[in-house]
Give the backbone structure.
Amino acid sequence: MNMKLSFRWYGKDDPVSLEYISQIPGMRSIVSAVYEVKPGEVWPEESLAKMKEECEANHLVFDVVESIPVHENIKLGRGDVDHLLDVYCENIRRCAKYGIKCVTYNFMPVFDWTRTQLDKKAEDGSTSLVMYWEQMRGLDPLKDDIHLPGWDSSYTQDEVRELINAYGAIGEEGLWSNLEKFLKKVIPVAEECGVRMAIHPDDPPYPIFGLPRIITCEENLDRFLKIVDSPANSLCFCIGSLGCAASNDVVKMVRKYAEMDRIAFMHLRNVKLMDDGSFEESGHLSSCGSIDVYEVVKALAENHFDGYVRPDHGRMIWGETGKPGYGLFDRALGATYINGLFEAAEKAVKK
Ligand code: DNO
């Protein structure tokens, strides 16, 4: 197959072992990161070397990083931003030295993905991550102490308030110009060392609590790709994130960006969208959610996509416990489904 099948692994603390991952048919690459250092610090080479060695001992390739986190001061364009950009570039160089070909990151202010519950039980007894607007409405992080699951708990509520106000002051255009500064510094380094940078879209793709979010829709992805017109400046196209806005036609978008060769990494998962914009993460199969995963894969195969693909968030099934979204069983089922779709779609293209 052309596409490179991969699996996210959280390192030595991950309850899912590399051996189990390697037993998934067609599994090739490991997606991981150095988790023991804070954003804005240099990654120790020993950690990268060790991870590479462990993967190879399990017949896997460690060639995708998710994520090198972008420090808030880079996104806000304040304080020690120039130093932080140098550290970021150094981390890309170090990753490349240990075989990394693709680095994922996001440019979401303060919080990464937002959900209201991580273990919502479905009728079949499986659990998954959900975001219900009825649980979000009425929450005001400037007034209330908010603890949504998955949010960075290293911030105090006062720090969160300070950050929200700082982002409010720069707004969307301020965030765009800080992103531009980041790309102009980082992409030439990535080009030099043969790494494709892949930005992850905002999840979900609209403002949360008034925080600006810009990696959200076709118009903005076009604007993003034009800032530095290079394959090193590419997308991590997450259909589950972009698919949470009914206005995003993910099949059309995948086709367009695959044709332009600006997708380095695909995150495949499905979501069930509700009328009020709430959503539930579902099984990967097209009929389980609102996204036609077959049409997405067909668009990739028809454009001879040879980048990385991973089954994203799975449900918790068969009594498995662990990191929400990142158990073994349902992601392995997702992987075999993805294999099937790609085998069929790629063969149809060859005929
Ligand atoms: C969630 C992931 C995201 C992603 C980052 C990339 O499970 O898809 O957390 O890793 O946004 O920087």
